[in-house]
Every structure is written in C-alpha cells, then in structure tokens.
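In the design runs reported in the main text, the only information available to the sequence generator was the tokenized backbone. The following block is the verbatim input for one such run; it is reproduced so that readers can re-run the procedure and compare outputs position by position.
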C-alpha cells in the first residue's frame, strides 16, 4: 500500500525557513515524480513544486521560485522541500504527492503538514 508521510511543518516568522520532509513507502519510489501541493484557507489547492522520477528536472509555482527547492533521495525514499524567505502568503497545509509524471493528475497523497508564517 502506497504511503507518504510529511513532517517538518511548524510556525515560523516572516523571512524564516522550514524544511519539509516526505517519507515514501509501498510503491516504486524511483518510478514516480514527487510534487508538493499546498492548501491555504479559502484558496484552491495548488501545486508548489515537482521533481521528476529521475530527479533531473524540477518546476515551481511562480510564487515560490527562487525561495523553495525540491529534492529527492532514492536511497532513503525521501523527498524534501526547503522553503526559505517565507512570506505571509505561504501558510497552509502542505501535501507530498507521487505520480508517474509531474503532469499526471492521478497521484498518491500524504495527510499533509501545517505551515504557519506569523510574527
């Protein structure tokens, strides 16, 4: 059974940093692209970042380019999202997801981790 478990969320002040982690199990990790989505209150869920199954290509939402970095480690079946220079528009529940490609809509979802940006 495919499972994704996020960790690393929390409360940070504006300008702060967080590193989200995603532990994957129950599916062939190396065959799946990993994407992070976020759900903010009152807003639609949006893709924040994605990394291909080989880790050779990434893409980011315009709102996070230059601030967020997605990476993956095949040896440990982990994915990460480093989030720097957090701003008040970044809070929400962040979900780790897995799909065959970054474009595919059918994907596995983790339960999410809460990120709050406040002074």
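Verbatim output:
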């Amino acid at each position: 059974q495919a499972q994704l478990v996020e960790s690393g969320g929390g409360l940070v002040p504006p300008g702060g940093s967080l590193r989200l982690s995603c532990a994957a199990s129950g599916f062939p990790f190396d065959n799946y692209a990993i994407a992070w989505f976020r759900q903010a209150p009152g807003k639609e869920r949006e893709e924040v970042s994605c990394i291909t199954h080989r880790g050779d290509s990434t893409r980011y939402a315009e709102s996070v380019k230059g601030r967020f970095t997605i990476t993956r480690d095949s040896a440990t079946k982990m994915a990460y999202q480093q989030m720097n220079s957090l701003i008040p528009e970044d809070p929400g529940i962040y979900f780790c997801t897995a799909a065959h490609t970054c474009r595919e809509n059918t994907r596995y979802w983790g339960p999410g981790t809460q990120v709050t940006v406040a002074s």
